[in-house]
Design a protein that fits this description.
Helix content is 30%, strand content 17%. The longest helix has 15 residues. Bound molecules: threonylcarbamoyladenylate and magnesium ion. The site of threonylcarbamoyladenylate has 30 residues, from strand 5, strand 6 and strand 10. It catalyses: L-threonine + hydrogencarbonate + ATP = L-threonylcarbamoyladenylate + diphosphate + H2O.
Amino acid sequence: METKIYDGTQLVEAAQELKKGNLVAFPTETVYGLGANALLPDSVKQVFTVKGRPQDNPLIVHVASFEQVKAYVDNFHPATEKIVKNFWPGPLTLIFKIKKDSLPSIVTGGLSTAAFRMPDNTKTLEVIRTAGVPIVGPSANTSGKPSPTTAKHVYHDLHGKITGIVDDGATRIGVESTVIDLSDPTADPMILRPGAVTKEALEAVIKKPVTIDRHLVQADETPKAPGMKYKHYSPDTRVLMVENDDWEAAVEWAKDQHFRTGVLAGPTIVENVRESVAATYMYQDDSVTAATKGLFAGLRGLDEKKLALDLIFVQVVPEEGLGIAYMNRLKKAAGQNYFKK
Ligand code: TXA
Ligand code: MG
């Protein structure tokens, strides 16, 4: 099949394809999603097939309004209203207990809960509204690879396998949404996956404590979000994290090993090491925001076969605020491995 690229004037066509049951990738503020009509089990099954995704990993249901969620959920956590008012549309996914059998079990992975998100992208909201149905959307990459932050990345992984891609340029944030569990109305909200909406931002809004799934802190715990346990974000090339004081030693060592080395970092680090390595991918500036936005694109760029790199060194950032989400994805890409002197 020929995969079509839809621009802003072809959103009705994209919506009609989705409604009919075909797969169309869509832009969001975080990463591109692989869309299918959430109410058609056969279409949802296709999503797992084309991504190569394990079927026990449930999908996020994308909606164009909070009203739309009420068709599937009747028992809301008391913090829901404040959270929705402050963070939707936006990079925050909410887990609720759903009305029995209100969504196909292929969507929920057979759980009694489901994940909902209203993405902050006008084209995609228009598509969901026009389709008139909720749209499931995992990240639109081959399972295990870095999530796509441009339509080109989606095309690279999925062309020939899906009907189309709605193109809206590069995504603003660069890592997937924060996932919080609101399924037990009597429990404190719990962050299952870190993203751009931080624990501090949530607590400031609801004025109550927000907890963090223990496995995000302790490596040996089993995560509550099924997807967090899989190998993720990994380029074929070996990735090593480099602490800020170790760049000189890291580059020296790689030279001694006769490695073809790539570097993914902000301008300050890149300027210092550029002469000594085979390839660099520079974040737009030295901020954590720019690093987060460029992480997946950089990993993909440096993983290209034609560069034939042996190794990619990547900058670390402090684990606070948005840095928690950046480091969570980077650690997975690096298999937890740091360069050690
Ligand atoms: O930013 C995002 O969230 C992107 C864009 C496209 O919206 N989507 C995305 O979807 O990252 P995906 O499928 O790659 O990640 C969904 C995560 C997985 O870790 C999954 O296990 C978890 O949400 N999840 C989904 N339903 C759940 C549920 N009922 N209970 C716990 N975790 C759930
Ligand atoms: Mg994903």
